Amino acid sequence: xEQIYQDNGGGETRLDxxxxxxxxxxxxxxxxxxxxxxxxxxxxxxxxxRIIEFLAESYDVPINAVFFRHFADGGHEYLARTWLLxxxxxxxxxxxxxxxxxxxxxxxxxxxxxxxxxxGDPRWPIAHKYGFxxxxxxxxxxxxxxxxxxxxxxFAYVGGAGYVGIGQVTGKVIPARDAEVEIEGRRQPLLDQPxxxxxxxxxxxxxxxxxxxxxxxxEWLAARPVEEAFRKxxxxxxxxxxxxxxxxxxxxxxEAAFGLNEATN
Length: 265
Prior knowledge:
- There is one protein chain.
- The protein has 2 domains: 37-100, no CATH class; 105-257, ph1033 like domains (ph1033 like fold).
- Mean pLDDT is 82; it is low at 97-102.
- It has helices at 2-7, 15-23, 46-59, 87-100, 123-130, 139-142, 198-204, 248-257; strands at 37-41, 63-73, 76-83, 109-116, 132-136, 153-159, 162-169, 174-175, 180-183, 186-189, 213-223, 242-244.
- It is built from 8 helices and 12 strands.
- By secondary structure, it is α+β, with helices and mostly antiparallel strands.
- The strands form 3 sheets. Strands 4, 5, 6, 7, 8, 11 and 12 form a 7-stranded mixed β-sheet that branches. It has a 3-stranded mixed β-sheet with strand order 1-2-3, with helices on one face. The protein has a two-stranded antiparallel ribbon with strand order 9-10.
């Protein structure tokens, strides 16, 4: 939405600022939270079945498919209806966000996503090792990082795996080409580190906002490898680069899983 807003004359004003000024309230992190998707078909191929089940079970997307079949028996005609998934469970997925949005934000916690759990993807290991969050490949992806300020806490999530860390923001967003990390007591450019991929460096050195990489420094309070990511049904998850984390259940559950509480963070 941010990119659409900017493409249509947003200028220097951010979407969240313009929204608050016009409507007198904050821009919601999740839109169409009560929307449900229903595919009506006579039949679906196995791949479509798997996609629907994956979205519903792995990402809590309120999506389902319903099949109608016509048949005749003894001079009577019938229209039979069959659901792919239990419609009551799918309905609950759409209802949960509406309950969450009633809770005020605690002023501190954000959800951030760091790539997907794919073989050879170094995004989380590098971010953990050098203490930063990153986003690139277009301003739509990295602009949400501007909302992170020193003192904010981030709950890091890897798509397809789960929560991998909780950290505290220690600085504002800056271009990755200007970022430095501490190695054996000395400050060194992030892009000079040998385990930062050449492909990532090429994007980071670009001054094109649609190509470059941006980073936010973070002190990790607790972390674990992707293979040991924490995941549980009902926890908040999103494809947004960064957004305010309202769900108290997610906050408390992930804190406990990582051995953190109010007394230790």
